[in-house]
Every structure is written in structure tokens, then in C-alpha cells.
């Protein structure tokens, strides 16, 4: 295989050029050779690695897990039990996510079934969402809500502002909030 530019390598591997650069910056693939003009050049080895990474991502493996799988893949002295254990843990995580998604699906199906979906303003879906949110807040309300500082484009924020942002309570991920709510809805 000849050397490919980033677009050709990305196409051959089934990823985007942006992902190729990202994987390179994370150290998942080696830093590319460069032309005199600075363009990246990739060979067959890198394309195989990119395909491997794409397949791992398709199965939901994290970047850390992919790093370990790449190490095992390139290690002729590897033990298959190490690979199996990593894959088994990923399978357990997927099963847990599936149970959570099944629970969210059941809760939403029940709510959709309760709503008439007509022109009337009454909506049991909104009522249940508001009721469950009030009963089961995922995070307690912060005692002090930080104010946002106006920053002109191209300027840097002050260190104190960054410190305040880091100490603020993070907002829950929407999936986490929905999971907490759906568990409460089933328990009620």
C-alpha cells in the first residue's frame, strides 16, 4: 500500500479525518510521517489500526479500553484471558446500560399512554416530569448560584472565575437525570 493523505486514510478506515487527528493526538495511532509541505502521510499499518479502533468504538469500548486492546493486539506474547476479561467487563457494562434503557423505555411508554395528545392544555407527561423532578432531585440545589461573567471574544477569563466554575455543582447528564426519574416513577 502506498502512503495515503489523511482524507484517503480516513476513507479507507471508515472514519473522518477529524477522528484520525483525534486518535493521533491521543496516541492511539503513531504520529504520522509528514511531507515537506507538512501534510500527514499514513500507511497500511495506520489504516489497520484505525479500522480496529473504529470497530472497538462500535462496540462501545472507551478510549482507555481501546488503548489496552491495541496493546494486546500488537503483543505477540499476550494472554487471551486478558483480552477476554476486558471484553467481558464491557459486555457487563452494555448489559447494565440495556437494563437502564429498558427501564427508561417502559417509563416513557407508560407516560405516552397516559397522554391524550389532543388540543387540550392538560398533559400528564409534563405533570409527571415536574412531580418526579420535585420529589427526586438528582443533585441538591447549590447554596449559591454563581453569576456568569461577560467575556469579550478573544479575551481570557481570570483564574478566580475558572476556580468558581470548577467548584460549582455540575449539572447532571440528561441520561442520568432521566434514569433517576424513571427509577422513581417505577417505585411510585
Question: Would you kindly provide a written description of the structure presented here, covering whatever features stand out?
Answer:
The chain contains 8 helices and 2 strands, in the order H-H-E-E-H-H-H-H-H-H. With 188 residues, it is mainly α. The chain has 2 domains: 6-78, Multidrug-efflux Transporter Regulator, Chain: A, Domain 2 (Orthogonal Bundle), CATH 1.10.1660.10; 95-136 and 170-188, no CATH class. Helix 1 packs across helix 2, helix 1 (6-13) crosses helix 3 and helix 5 (80-114) packs across helix 8. The N and C termini lie far apart (62 Å).
CA-based gyration radius: 24 Å
Number of domains: 2
Number of helices: 8
Taking pLDDT < 50 over at least 5 consecutive residues as the criterion, the unreliable ranges are: 159-169
CATH topology grouping of the largest domain: Multidrug-efflux Transporter Regulator, Chain: A, Domain 2
Determine the N-to-C terminus distance: 62 Å
CATH architecture level-2 label of the largest domain: Orthogonal Bundle
Main sheet makeup? 2 strands, antiparallel
Shape, please?
elongated
Q: Kindly state the percentage of residues in helix.
A: 55-70%
- How many distinct beta strands? 2
CATH uppermost class of the largest domain: Mainly Alpha
